[in-house]
Amino acid sequence: MSHRLLLIGSVCLGLGLVVGLWGAGQAAEASVRAWVAVQHLDNGLLLLKPYCQSSQSMKLDYYLLVEKKGRSNSSLSKQAGQVHAPAGQPTGLSTSSLNLGEGENCRVQLKVMAGRRLLADEEFWLGPSGRKIDLE
Fold first, then answer.
1. In this predicted model, what pLDDT tens digit does every residue of 65-83 receive, in sequence order?
2. What is the pLDDT of residues 71-117, one digit of tens each?
3. CA–CA gap between residue 43 and residue 38 (Å, rounded)
């Protein structure tokens, strides 16, 4: 009886590994793109809309970090979730808004993953005007 349980356990473990590796292989073959659209609203309010697009239909995890830094204060906002991305179609992930005052900058980072595998990473800074800036 114990040999049968051991054999069944080994078969289940082997199948789990095969299924896990097959899923990782799919993610490795998929091409995923990520970006954040910045929309300027009234009174200096900015709307951040992150998107992703995959060459294959798949389930993806996303992480959006918005870090605002000023002369005397700072704030950090994090959003995360899971989305099913249909093949070849841009998929909206979430929405975040902020107001940048004079002397304030904002770092925006979007990561898109399949399991633990990073598939796309978009990062940029916004200046007081809400325009992307190069700090290098």
1. 999 998 888 899 999 999 9
2. 888 899 999 999 999 999 999 999 999 888 888 889 999 999 999 99
3. 15
CA distance 90 to 50: 10
Q: Around Cβ 88, how many Cβ atoms within 10 Å?
A: 10
Does pTM top 0.85 for this prediction?
A: no
> CB-based contacts of 40: which residues, under 8 Å, 6+ apart?
46, 47, 130
Task: Let me know: does 112 contact 120? Beta carbons within 8 Å.
Answer: yes
